[in-house]
Design goal:
This protein has one helix spanning 2-27; strands spanning 31-37, 45-50, 57-62, 68-80, 89-98, 101-111, 114-121, 128-133, 138-139, 142-143. The chain is globular and about 45 Å long. The protein has one domain (30-147). The chain is built from one helix and ten strands; from the N terminus they run H-E-E-E-E-E-E-E-E-E-E. Strand 7 and strand 8 (128-133) form a beta hairpin.
């Protein structure tokens, strides 16, 4: 009887450990977009990452930047409800979180996986940069800017 109980305890331990490991793996699978600015001679490239564990937090990494910039979703509004069970169109505004306080803002319009509009407005100068998806640098692990044209 003790052998059966010990075997069940061991099986339960293996299952619970497996669940924790799987959960950690899924938490690391963040959604991201590779983007490049439009209308500049030397495009600005960035990776916008949506955190899997918190849907109102993310980060931005610039191609020539010094690291991740934390962002927080400050608004989300439904622009258009689409009939037929398709996803609605939403506008989301994200703000940079810096040690100095709020930074620039990113505004995106999306419908499901489709990104229709993406803009950045600098906090200090108010300059607006418009971006488009940069599918040529997209990999499953992130934006690979070495692959750019």
């Amino acid at each position: 009887m003790n052998a059966v109980i010990n075997s069940l305890k061991l099986t339960l331990l293996v299952v619970v450990t497996g669940l924790f490991l799987c959960n950690a793996a899924f938490a690391d699978e963040n959604d991201f977009r590779c983007l490049k600015s439009i209308g500049l001679k030397n495009p600005v490239r960035l990776q916008f990452t949506f955190r899997a564990d918190k849907d109102d937090l993310g980060y931005v990494t610039y191609q020539r930047g010094s690291g991740r910039i934390q962002v927080k979703k400050i608004s989300e509004k439904e622009l258009r409800r689409v009939p037929g069970g398709r996803p609605s169109e939403f506008e989301m505004t994200w703000e940079e979180v810096t040690p100095e306080g709020p930074g620039g803002r990113y505004v995106m319009v999306s419908q499901g996986a489709r990104l229709y509009d993406f803009k950045y407005r600098g906090r200090k100068d108010g300059k607006v940069l418009k971006f488009e998806e940069d599918v040529e640098v997209f990999t499953e692990k992130g934006c690979n800017w070495a692959r750019q044209n």
